[in-house]
Amino acid sequence: MPGWTLPRRSRTAVLSAAGLAAASAGLWAGLGGDAQAAGAVPTPDHTLVVVLENHAYSQVIGSSSAPYLNSLKTGGANLTQSHAITHPSQPNYYALFSGSTQGVTSDSCVQTGFSSAANLGSEVIAAGKTWGSYNETLPSQGSTVCSSGKYAQKHNPWFGFSNVPVSSAKTFAQFPADYATLPALSFVTPNLCSDMHDCSVSTGDTWVKNNLGAYATWAKTHNSLLVVTFDEDNSLSGNRIPTVFYGQPVKAGSSTATTYNHYNLLRTLEDLAGTSSHAGQAASAGDITGIWN
Predict the structure, then answer these.
(1) CATH code for 45-284?
(2) What is the pLDDT of residue 8?
């Protein structure tokens, strides 16, 4: 009715109820899951993830042995309470890629295509986006060999899934010079020396700078992301690991002390890529927030 208003007491009750509903919705979204508010993460053109090995947060963040990774932290976003799922290495890769360890409990080479479970690669492909991996010292594109020199398949979970084409696993020599031709979502797997497994923090830091530094610089002006994380810690720090985001969509110098793990990272990668589903425990995990422009 024109000019009609609720009495003050009624208006107060309505507003209080609305506020309670909004607060409840916010709390539910904060708990993660499919109630996560739309638009919680950006939509980059390219996201590139590199996974390094077996070092705790305090061994890298703030360390003089890792000047480049710390520069990414300073110019990007730092997750100060990022955690791996378990030990040893291989189950963490499966957790990050598929929201489940898929029953893998060791670093033993798995049977190629042993699982048909949903995973990041299959979801990105189903969404009509491009997916790929670039694997240092992989003998040839699509090779399913368990090991070769410093190459180790245990760090490449995509080979375990029948719904991810083996041809999407390329050698690092095939990493493009024109970054605009990168897949919408890709992983880079350094070999056992470059990823800090067999060699020093300094060696891995220098490898990332020399091989991905130009991409990071490009990402800053081309709506793209570089994500650097670790599979697990050194078994001495509660599995707290370094995780850094860098690129144009990231708020420079930001950090979050929210506790996140590989399932949160998987959920975030899925939402960055705009997949229509979430694999395994990523379905009930919250996105990584508080670091975006």
Answers:
(1) 3.40.720.10
(2) 37
